[in-house]
Every structure is written in C-alpha cells, then in structure tokens.
Amino acid sequence: MILRGLLYVGNEPSKDSETAKPIQGVPNPTYEWMGLTNEWGIRVKPGEHGLRLGDVNVGIYGEVPERWEDQTRRPRGALPRPGIPPLPYSLRSKHEMWADCAANLYEEAIQRRWIPATEVPWDLLAELPEDVERSVCQICTELSQCANTELEIITYWQDQMSYGYFEVKQYLATATFDCARHLEVLRKRALSNGGGLGLESRGRVNRMILESSGGWTEAVVYLYLLRGTYLTRLLAGLLEYAHNDAESYIYSHMLEDHARHLTYGYDHLKYAATHHKGGAAIMRTLLAIGEGMFAAEIEDPIVKSAMAIIFGGGIEGGRTFGMERYLLLIREFLQDYLELCSWLGVDREETLHPKLKQYLEI
Amino acid sequence: MSEAIDMQEQHELDTSWMEKMGEWGAKATPGKRGLTLDDIKVGSYGDLPKNSDNMTGRPRGATARPDAYRVGAYSVHTLSEIWLENAEFLYEEALQRQWSSATDVPWHTLKPLPDAVEEAECLLCTFFNEVEFVAGDVPARWIAKTTPDYLEARNVLSAQVMDEARHMDVFRKRALANGGGLMRMSGATSGFVGSIDLARDFTEMSTRLHISGEGAVLTMFRMGELFGQNDAEKTMYRLCAQDEARHVAFGVMHLRFMGATAPERCEEIECYLDEAEDQLLAGQQNPAGTQSETSEALAILLGGGVEQYDEGHRKLLVIRRRQLKEYMKRVISAGFSTRFENGRSPIPAAYASTN
Fold first, then answer.
1. Number of CB pairs < 8 Å for A and B?
2. CB atoms B35 and A197 under 8 Å
3. Per-residue b/e over B185-207, b at no fewer than 16 CB within 10 Å?
4. CA of B133: which chain A residue's CA is closest?
5. Contacts of A55 in chain B (CB under 8 A)
6. Would you tell me which CATH number, out of the four given (3.30.420.40, 1.10.620.20, 1.10.3370.10, 3.30.70.2520), belongs to the domain B79-351?
7. Per-residue pLDDT tens digits for A84-96
8. What number is the ipTM of this complex?
9. What are the start and end residues of each CATH 1.10.620.20 domain in chain B?
C-alpha cells in the first residue's frame, strides 16, 4: 500500500490556509482516504481501437490470481476495507470461468451491436408459401427457447462470479444482452410475415443445460460445446437458405453474436481442461451423458422437418433434398464437435454416442 | 448421399405439428421507429397473463406441448410483481442508445490534474467501479427467476445488465488513464440486511436499486458537467446518466404498476421506502451522502481543488438538495406521494433544511 496523499491530510485548507475564508457549517474534511492505493501513476493511452478493457490491465491491475478469496465487490487492484460482510460469490477460482479472450470479446460485442427494430430491412420480408412460413416460424420458436435457456443459465451464474474476474462478468453481460436481442428478433420475425409462433420445444437439452448447477464450466460444456456448435451449423444453414434480405440480416447477425459466445465457451473450456486437474475427465463424463440427450433431441421430428422444408423450399422438396441437407448439417456439426473435443483433450471419436455416430456414417 | 434416402423411414418428414401452432396470420408492420416490441403485440401474442403458468420456458403465445419438461421454477410469475407499462419503449431506447467506452469517450482530452483532484476523481471512480455492477449482478439474477411470459420486462433488465457492465468498465478505465489508480473500496454494497443484493422480492429490490440507489447516482451523473474536469469525464457522466435514467424509469413505472394492480402491497412498499430514504440521506450507497468519504472527493472536484474545498462543499449541498427533490418527484410519480404529506418521510424536512 502506498500512502501518497499524506501531504493533504496535514494540509487541510480550512485549517491551514490563512487567506481562505471558511464557509460556516462546512465540516472539516478528514482526507482519510487520500493516499490509500495499491499502485499509483497509471496512465494508459488509447490505441487505434480506442481505450479497450484489456489495455488497462497494467501493473497490479492486470494481475489475475488463480484464486480470488475476496467475497466483496472490491475492484481488482483496489485496496480492501476490513469488516465488509461477504456476498455469496460461489465461483472464486480462475479455472471456473476464465477465458483469455473475454476482455476482447466484450469490446467486440459493443462495437458490433445491432438494432433489430431499425436495422433489419423488415420491408423486404415477402410472403412465403405457407409450409415454408410455418417452418420458419417453428424454427424461430425453437431458437427462441435456445436463446431463453442461454439467457437463464448465464444470468443464473453471472452474479456468483467473483469480481476478481470482472472481464468475464462484463463479457457475459454482453452475451446476456445478445440473448435478449435474439429473443426479440426471432419473435419479430415470427410475427411479421403472416405467421405466428409454433410449438414449444420439448426441452430435453434445455433442461440439461439448466440443470447444470454444479458449476458454470459444466453448463458451458452443454451450452456451447454441444448445443452451441450445433446451433452454429443451424444458423449457417438458415443464412444459406434465407428467403430475403431481412432474414439474411437476422441470421448473419445472430451468427456473429453466436460466434463470440462460442469463442468464449471454447476458450474457457480449454482453460478449464488445462488448468484444473481432472477437468477434462469431468467434461468427458458430461459429454457421454449429454450426447445421448442431444441424440434424442435431434430425433424429435419437428425441428428436423421444419429445417428440411426450409432447405427443400417446401414439403415436397423437404422429403428429399431438404432432409438430405439437414442430415448433412448434422454430420457437419458432428465433425466440428469431434474436432473441438479433440482440441480440448477430451477425445470423443471412439466413444461417440451410437445414435450420433450413425449420422457420421450417412 | 444415396444412403440418406435409405434412411427416409427414420427421417421421414412429419408435418403434423403444422396443425398445432400458435395463432396464425400475425403480420406486424414497422412504424416510424422501426419494428418495435410494441408493434408485435398483435392478437393473442400481446395478451399478458396476470399469473403465468409457464414452467417450460416457452415463448408467450407458442403452443404448449404436454410432454415438455418443466425446467423453469420461475418465482416471479405474477404480472404485478415485475411489470411496467413502458417496458417495450425502454428496451428499444436502450438498444438505440448503446455506446462504447473505448471509442465514444474522448480520452485524449484527459490532461494531468493536480494530485488531490486526480485522487478525488480516482476515489469516485473506485466507488463506481465497485458499485455499478451491483446493478448488473442483481437484475441478472432476477431475469433467471422471471417467467419468459414477461419477455419485455426481462429484456429491459438484460439491457440494464449490459449498461452496468459498461459503467463498471468506463470508471475503471478513467481511474487508470490519467496518472492515478484505484483506491480503497467503499464496501457500500455488501451483504447486510436492507442491501440491494439480499432482497428476496423483486419489487423490494427494485425500490432499493432503481428508486433509491440509482436515483441518487442519476442526479450525480447529471451534475457531471459540474465536477467533470475535462470533456472525457463530462462525456462519461453524461452517457452514464442516459443509461441510468432508463433504469430509474423502470423502477418508477414498475412501482406505479404494482401500486395500481396490487394495492394490498402498498404498505409493504412504504416500508421499503422508509429504509431507502435512510440510505439516501446518510448511507454509503449514495456517493454524495453525508457519511460517504466520496463526499469529500466530490467537494474537491466541485471546487476544483483542496484550496476551494469549502466552495466545493457548497456545490455538493446543491447536489444533495437536488437528489432529494428528484427522489420526491419519482416517488410521487410512482403513486406514493402521501408519505411526503403525512409526515412519514423525513425527506421533505431534509429538503427544507437545505434551503
């Protein structure tokens, strides 16, 4: 601790200044707070992208400890104050939430913000054949529930994360907002072209994600590695087969947001797998269970059929090309997934759930 | 791909769900502000249940499936508990008014300040870095507890979580960008009874957070023109004030809705306001409060240096006075004016004494 403000403590103007005329009723300042700092003299300058969150990680302010015992809201690098009652921060180890990219993703999310109300060219929505419109609306309903699950699991964990890892909390705030925007834009799309919402999801994978209450990392395994990787392919497919510029705008921007979410998720899992003894083994166990749930979910005919109809341009096309295209989507997802698992050190190729394996053999 | 055709039996197209979808024929059209959340409250999709039985997380208006899992143990499932009439407007405004602390604050206008002034600014920034995200952490928790049938209110809270992250960030950046550093934490928002964190009811939380805590901070941010030492700081406070005004509006409008739709809870709310007013006058959560060390820092900033402390303190009194006045206006607007007339609230007397 540096006591650099003592100069003023003994130099209160109302006492020492002979020329100053004290104003009646003004309490004498104590200046007890002056000089109470861990590190002084920090002068970070903005770079070509402005003054970014990661830029101010200098000196002690950039030191991210493996364990953050402080259960108050003390900003990292600030001096503690004794006697502050704790808050229930249950995640206090770096491996439980950290990703090196969090600060950059936070800034990127802000730079890439978008506004569904005014930036989506809604006037370019055109009437679609009813079977296609119904399929688009059904997918919007399904994706809404995925976004809702992501929103609920993030906000469940967010306030349990220690202030020592504020970059992650801040990044997750952007993800929270992204999810809200996805809920908004999907609802807007479903209700603006002569359609409506569809059937709710059975929610097998949503339940699995929401019940991951053992830790945030466990939730990330299901939310991003398994479901998120699948959603990327789904959104890319929707973008490829978008019916107009309004849909293209929606899906491309959702994909951008989603890519950030996955970047965080994968980066965090890599960190957890390499910095937490036994972390990779836990992931492997979770995935063995999760793959079965996921396989059951994608067997549900509703999403499969709706996507096939979108790809096939209608029911007839959906029966042939559309379904083939959807099955290809699943295969591509599984290839991505296996590659990611291998990168994380939780190889799943040999032990992939048999019901998923069959999609690779198509 | 020929084997895929062989799999047709397993992957046969099923269209039976098409007959079970929600209300059909919704065609919301964009207005002059684009296609807003308000515009899509068409047909039954605009019907808000007074009590939500949605336990599966389905979007409002989607068809329920009998075999869906009950994943949502939503403790906030009554409209009066969380609703406000202008949620759609506040959410859309939040989207329109997002800003970037990296690029929208003219950081190049920061210039070296006298040591005491820099320390005062850094103390204030430490305080805000510490407390701003209470308003992110806590609303986030309530999003997860609220039924998705009240999507619009949840989305406003999601926008608030984003805003508060940016506030936490901008004050940290300021503290570390002009030759200073972070200082000692205040501990203003910690785990004690009556704190924002520990509220077990949404309206109780909102009263403490939106009406009292953020209300006091909003007044301060609005006075940033007075104590900001350069354009960077003035911009920072001005942009934060825009965000904070939406959060306070949420609290006022929610309280108004709750008072009108659940009058049996009004006395309970009065009790929360009693506590909130104690905090407003003297509590550590108000950076301009009589017992907050940030008040000394503010006096230095308002005066322009330690030599002008007394002058700065006089301006601080103006801020406190304005805090009280604005607080009363909000509570009156929320429909709880009687407390200022029947002697229950200490605020009118405190306000009168600042004359």
1. 421
2. no
3. bbbbbbeeeebbbbbeebbbbbb
4. A73
5. 173
6. 1.10.620.20
7. 888 889 999 999 9
8. 0.95
9. 79-351
